[in-house]
Amino acid sequence: MTWKFWHKTSDQQTDLAPSVGSPVSGPVFRIIVADFYDNISNCGAPNLAAALGSCEGLQTEAYLENFDHSFLNLESRNIFDLIDTGQSILKRTQSDVIIWGYRDNDKIRLNFQNNTHYENNGNSFISLMDSFYIPSSVVDSPDSKIPAELLLLLYGAALSTVNNPSREYQIYKKYLLRKVVHQLSKIDSSQTLTEEYLPYILNFVGIIYLSLAYDSSYDGDLKIIRNIFEDALKLQSKILQPTHIGCIYYHLGQLYDCATRYIANHPTSYFKPAIKNYQNTQKYLSKYTYPYDYGYVCYKLSELYVSYWKQTEDIQALRDAVFQLREAEKVYTQILFPDFWGQIQGRLGYLLHNLGHLTQSREICELSIRAYKNQQKIITEKNDPKSWAQIQEKIGNIEYFLGRLQDDVSLIQEALSCFHDALYIYENAGMNAQIKQIKSDIDKAYQSLEKLKSSDEEE
């Protein structure tokens, strides 16, 4: 498969240009193009922003304020500065996506970042390490014009990066991506392209297709997307940095990961390739070099192992899920990623609770309680009382289990305290179903307490 993107747009190619204007009312995706790290030309960011601004559903702006660009040398490993600066700009401009540009001789390397990068939110499949190269000549001068096919691909990449979980935004994003994929299918793949660009193009074509069809129940879509990424991997010798090979494996892992959830026929057959490709990703994006990519892959691996455990009741899969989540926990700290750290703690509490129950282990159950209490550092009684109460109920259930397991009166009393904390919140909120359930739990706890006290008295 080859693609023609760099030639000037001819009259016959204009129907491939992205739609101009916004024919429907609805969401608008704000795209920021940061001033390129570029000592030769200062036209790149404004030219790219202007070109993308002609695409349907996008509102674009070139961000030309002075800031330290040194982190854009991805080999510097200073990934935190890249993420932090991007998040700051996105928050300040209230934008969905920032596009970074970095000159590499006669090419411009583009990287795409959204406002919740490396958090379990929305459905963006792009890594910040995904690099897309374009010839610098298409943006270097005020008179430069980006070819229609190239602009179409950049438009699809920007849309694919959007990670807004709002249902309305997701609907509009999919609508626009469907149009992009339809237009991409018109490109004459028989026309040649310099192979040095091809693995990067194929990777982003695969990302765009995956962003559209991730929830498809048709396994034919999986095969099409898989073939695109595998074609990119066949060109490893043309890839400038091994990091990019890791990104392609990452997207193959994402593809099979989605298949385990959305393709009904034989979903267990997709677990192994999903896990294998994620593990291959970790070889190229290690925790010491690219910690956030590594940590997020750990988080996704944990989810896969949990799903596999639920389908097979294989306790080793549950242990693997805990291990991978522990690895993610080391990367996503409370200070840097408070909300995601809270999600991880809640998930860790759930997994350790199940593992502790199955193995009858007090130590593991106590680790579960600790994780849930960590989650309550983010979800407090003041800022989210209902969710806080549900966590209290979970802690109470673990303490009740341990109390029954070890005939420990104090643990059952602790469970009762947690249950009553939750009951108070549920009653104030009028949560009748939760009130009924927790009152039943309280009754059982009192009955167990009375039995234990009676036994002690008889002795």
Structural features, described:
The protein has a domain at 1-243. The protein is an alpha/beta fold and 459 residues long. The chain is elongated. The N and C termini lie far apart (81 Å). The protein has a five-stranded mixed sheet with strand order 2-1-3-4-5, sandwiched between helices. 58% of the residues lie in helices and 7% in strands. It has helices at residues 44-52, 79-93, 148-161, 167-184, 198-213, 219-233, 242-262, 271-284, 291-312, 315-331, 338-359, 362-375, 385-406, 409-429, 432-458, and strands spanning 29-34, 58-63, 97-104, 107-114, 132-135. The protein is built from 15 helices and five strands.
Short description:
The protein has helices at 44-52, 79-93, 148-161, 167-184, 198-213, 219-233, 242-262, 271-284, 291-312, 315-331, 338-359, 362-375, 385-406, 409-429, 432-458, and strands spanning 29-34, 58-63, 97-104, 107-114, 132-135. With 459 residues, the protein is α/β, with parallel strands linked by helices. The chain has a domain at 1-243.
